[in-house]
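Re: [ENG-882] Designed sequences occasionally contain unexpected residues at chain ends

Forwarding the minimal case from QA. Structure tokens:
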């Protein structure tokens, strides 16, 4: 399965939620594509271990099963 993730700048508290999302995806062997704009906010060392692939805005995302555009998804997965 492949999913795309896009978001906006976030604070340290939200970073733990985002890290939990990427942990979940990695453990479940889900290929994750992150928007080139959002990946700029994932420069903290905790995110480097995920080796995230990127996509450019405007690319066709039809090949993805799911697309998340908010940190709310992270909170839902973390509960």
């Amino acid at each position: 399965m492949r999913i795309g993730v896009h978001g906006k700048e976030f604070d340290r508290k939200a970073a733990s939620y985002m890290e939990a999302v990427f942990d979940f995806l990695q453990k479940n062997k889900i290929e994750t594509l992150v928007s080139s704009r959002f990946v700029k906010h994932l420069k903290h060392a905790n995110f480097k271990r995920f080796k995230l692939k990127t996509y450019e805005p405007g690319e066709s995302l039809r090949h993805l099963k799911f697309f998340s555009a908010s940190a709310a998804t992270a909170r839902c997965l973390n509960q």
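QA comment: On inspection the terminal residues look reasonable. The first helix runs from residue 12 to 27. Proposing we downgrade this to a documentation issue.
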